[in-house]
Amino acid sequence: MFYLKLALLNLKKNSRTYGPFLLSMIFLMVMNTIVQIIFRNDGMSTLPGAQNAKYMFGLGNYIIVVFIVVFSLYANSFLLKQRKKELGLYNILGLGKRELAIVLFWETMISYVVTLALGLTIGSVFAKIGFLLLKKMTGFGSDFVYNFSFPAVLTVAGTFLAVFLLLFIWNVLQLKFVSPQALLKGSQHGEKEPKVKWLLALAGILCLGMGYGISVTIVSPIDALNLFFIAVILVIIGTYLLFTASSIAILKLLKNNKNYYYQLNHFISVSNMIYRMKQNAAGLASICILCTMVMVTVATTGSLYVGTDEMLKNFNPHDISITTRKDHQTDVEQMLRQLANQHHLKSIKVRDITTSEGLALIGKKDVYEALLLEQGNMTTIKNTEMFSLMTSEEYERVTGEPADIADDEVFLYEYSGKYPADTIKIAGHTFKIVHRINEMDAMPKAESISDAFLLVMSSEELITKLADELFPDDGYSADALFSTMVYADFQGKEEERLAFAREMKQFVTAMPDSPSCTSIDIDRESSKSFTGGFLFLGMIFGLMFTLATGIIIYYKQISEGVQDQQRYDIMQRVGMSHKEVRQTINSQVLMVFFFPIALAALHLAFAFPIIRKLLLLFGLANWQLFLWISVTTVLIFFVLYLLMYFQTSKVYYRIVERMPGTYTF
């Protein structure tokens, strides 16, 4: 009972440092509860297209758990650092390390119970709100109903029990290997002026340069997918090295600049930061990385959500498209018109175009050869270009334009990418490009993962012969090689359009030879679960990373305030005015805490090209939209960062500043 009372007294006495830690743990439990309840919702598995969202929520939950563990250890290290002096005093007064461990155990359990009670209560309430928000964002139907999940609650409770026990074990190990004298000194110990580690500084600049270089030189979305995490790791390493080594080098250069250094504000702030940077660099680097994560997460998920219609349009240039054999074309068109009339769709215009199937070719030197199935890997796929072939007769029928083409000539249409040369060599045949087509109604131009071209050739026989030479094992015939795409656009109510698309897809699925059918309305319904769930998780992660940023800034303010208290007290005693103290503090704090967000904005700017390529994998080619949302995200987060800075800086001022005329000797 004595140890329990002592633990309660300690928590009350250290409320200034324990309060933000408990609030952050409660917030993390609320976030985890929301995700767990939605993830374990019974209706999740019954919804069309919701499997993607369920997979994302499962993956997101693992990310949240990892983040909880890492952030808890980080915040706990600040707590322990501030309490070392107190624990050392208890140790000297007679409490052994075993007894201190018991006190820490009760403190940990009390913190866990408070976190559990408040976190689950608030989390259950906000889970309902989060459920309604997710339902609105995804368009999930009536089957997606809210139900409270006891297994979800038990999972959250067990996860956080493990986290708090891990913190307890970590704290006990810290006490075990530290002497009472070292504990009593706490975080106040002498610090030599750090030396500039030029090799580390150079390594940091090189890592950042390599990470930035990967991003700005990326051409293929496949390369972006392969190299994204390598670039991220390089930037993270470079950021930490930049703050630990390069920052000291910059401060030393400022110190050597006499015109800058020998000014009151600069003299004190630069001197303080030189001695402090060694131990605080990791915290500032962490703030920078968290700021970057917030910006990247929110900007990316926001772009995908806002750009949903554009992504659907890239994948579905027309409202409905059916690719079938030419002898089934009439049946498909008749059914299209019949179902459109049944569902009261207006302005329906049915069109068709016949081309070869897409041929995957890879350029070797100056000749295109077939990409065989066994050659398919990430390296070859990124260099693959898709070619569709059309007869001149079909081109004249579709466009109404003449196409008098010789056997060694082609018309070229670039509906994705650019072809720079005036000739094209395919399987030993050289064709001269005599005309470049500006647009084709059936194939609107769009940026995609790989380049795609349409070649108009003189005859069906030439195209069949070319396909046979490229793929001799397939034994192409004209019937097997050519297919007809029937496509249509129409107007109508959303539910009627969707019902029409579903019936049309059922009809096509029942046809022989497995024709394909794509509908923008069906894809829109299924994509809501993906983009909505993705944005919802992005909001969750953004809130968590923002909270972590605020908590780290708060603890840094407290930690640095305690260290600077005695320094500023001495300076005020020797004649430094209250106004000069405040100016010096402003100069120092502004320099320290605005460097991370400035570097984070720079990280996002250099990450823009590689993220833009990754968004192409989702079908979002509108880089202006991503740019607009990125700039908006940076501005909004900067405002939040300012609020966090001003709120936490008040704590620093209260610790450091003495009111004029208050001297203690």
From TrEMBL:
It is a multi-pass membrane protein. InterPro entries: ABC-4_Integral_Memb_Prot, ABC3_permease_C, ABC_permease_BceB-typ. Keywords: Cell membrane, Membrane, Transmembrane, Transmembrane helix, Transport. Residues 62-177 form the ABC3 transporter permease C-terminal domain. The chain crosses the membrane at residues 21-39, 59-79, 100-133, 153-177, 198-222, 228-251, 281-306, 534-555, 589-611, 623-646. It holds the Pfam family FtsX. GO terms for cellular component: plasma membrane. One of its GO terms (biological process) is transmembrane transport. It is found in: Cell membrane. Belongs to the ABC-4 integral membrane protein family. This is ABC3 transporter permease C-terminal domain-containing protein. It comes from Vagococcus acidifermentans.
